Design the sequence.
């Protein structure tokens, strides 16, 4: 098992869980969005604004494939949309890949995202009801791609440490 991939909707805890999992296992964590930002010297928002989504999605796939092909064992945290574009969901099934969908309900995601919506450009100008509707629509559209993961770990009502424990049980 060379690559552990965490995926799911924004606010499900991919980066936090991956970081904690990395500490527990000693396997390095790589955040795909941070890798893209480092490569371009731009924030994700700046890439979208200056170069457009198509450019971003091409670069996202290119860097995702580079990470998958690197010789290092890694935990890779994907962006919320990564599995949904450019057939990236097919990359979740490789021989050296162990993919995990951190599955959260609309209610859990809404509660988490409403409290820090200013850091999320897609929802920063929306009311709580609009955020809930936005998330519900996105989850419906993305569920096919997220469910291509080899494993699903429900996170509703669980602490971050409980979620890490659930993942460790799957990896054992």
Sequence:
């Amino acid at each position: 098992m060379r690559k552990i991939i965490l995926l799911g909707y924004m606010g499900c805890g991919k980066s936090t869980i991956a970081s904690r999992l990395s500490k527990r296992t000693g396997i390095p964590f790589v955040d795909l969005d941070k890798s893209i930002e480092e490569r371009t010297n731009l924030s994700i928002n700046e890439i979208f604004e200056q170069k457009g989504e198509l450019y971003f999605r091409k670069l996202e796939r290119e860097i995702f494939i580079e990470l998958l092909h690197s010789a290092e064992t890694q935990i890779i945290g994907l962006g919320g949309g990564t599995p949904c574009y450019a057939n990236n969901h097919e990359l979740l099934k490789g021989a050296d890949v162990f993919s995990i969908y951190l599955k959260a309900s609309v209610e859990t995601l809404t509660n988490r995202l409403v409290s820090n919506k200013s850091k999320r450009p897609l929802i920063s100008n929306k009311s709580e009801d609009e955020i809930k509707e936005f998330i519900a629509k996105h989850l419906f559209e993305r569920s096919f791609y997220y469910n291509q993961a080899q494993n699903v770990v429900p996170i509703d009502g669980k602490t971050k440490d409980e979620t890490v424990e659930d993942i460790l049980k799957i990896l054992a």
